[in-house]
């Protein structure tokens, strides 16, 4: 199959992409977070194609993307007032809300759950495509399952060339990590995945937030994952990743003590001069955490192109968007963190 790459700027793109979705085909779509692999979320057969293309486990549910808040009521029931408040504050934007699903949503889309995840992306071309298609668009991150997410059309092409009919190229994704997921189906709102809408942002609107265990620690075999996707090894390049925390000097000392040829260092741009002898790759500036979120997956995918022994990674501290970067990097590192201050 030939994979068309359509520019988001071309006037005919939205209609072509919407027609493909209406016909039950897959279209890779840009969003402000990462590229998604979209299909008609109400069509089981179309949704099945997503699982096949990604090699995704069947129990891992998909997010339904909507063009505006009004679509939420067709797909969900028992919507609490807090969902409207969140939608008004953060949509279109990098926030996904989990709510009880109506019967119209196929079990294939929800991975068999009685709840469904909904999001309205902050990307004009994609909202236009959703509106023209007339259906909610199910879209996981477009990466092959287990690989780092796709933040450019080229990344999508690298994973799916010849296997999907169409990619809409909207340029590099601004946020760079997947949306924040909040579950509103329990008594207290629960953060299932941190992203561009920060815990601080959520608290301001909700007044309360429980952080799910999967956000901060590796789930054990016996844990039930609230967001099924969080239990899988994720976001990771093929080689082992170790996060080295601590001051610049302490981390550099630790890394230089342990580095062997064939290893790589993933660091902040400010630190490149420290690692000239360690084959460093920077993913953004420590002083600008949003550059780190925007650059993280491209860097992890870059590292995946080579045979590498081990990656020593530097991770930003603190809240805001840095919190989401920590979560993705820690997952890539299977939560392996060494403190450069305490180790030699
Ligand atoms: O930013 C994003 O959210 C991107 C773009 C394309 O919109 N999409 C994305 O989809 O990251 P995906 O499939 O890679 O991640 C969706 C996550 C998975 O961890 C999945 O388990 C969780 O959302 N999820 C989906 N439906 C859920 C539900 N009903 N309850 C709990 N978690 C759910
Ligand atoms: Mg994903």
Chain-wise SSE layout:
Layout: E1 4-7, H1 13-22, E2 27-29, E3 36-40, H2 44-54, E4 63-65, H3 72-75, H4 81-90, E5 95-100, H5 107-110, E6 115-119, H6 124-133, E7 137-138, H7 153-160, E8 166-169, E9 180-183, E10 190-193, H8 199-206, E11 210-211, H9 213-216, E12 241-245, H10 248-258, E13 264-267, E14 280-282, H11 289-304, E15 311-313, H12 321-332, E16 337-339
Parallel strand pairs: 1-8, 2-8, 4-6, 5-9, 10-11, 12-15, 12-16, 13-14, 13-15
Antiparallel strand pairs: 2-3, 3-7, 4-7, 5-6, 9-10
Helix pairs in contact: 1-6, 11-12
The structure holds threonylcarbamoyladenylate and magnesium ion.
**Which ligands appear in the coordinates?**
threonylcarbamoyladenylate, magnesium ion
- Number of DSSP helices? 12
Which residues form runs of ≥5 with pLDDT under 50? none
Written as H for each helix and E for each strand, in order along the chain, the element string is: EHEEHEHHEHEHEHEEEHEHEHEEHEHE
Largest sheet: 11 strands, mixed
Number of strands: 16
End-to-end separation: 53 Å
Label the overall shape.
globular
Mean pLDDT: 95
Instruction: Order the strands across the largest sheet as they lie in space.
Output: 1-8-2-3-7-4-6-5-9-10-11
Query: How many whole angstroms does the radius of gyration measure?
Result: 20 Å
Share of β-strand residues: 15-25%
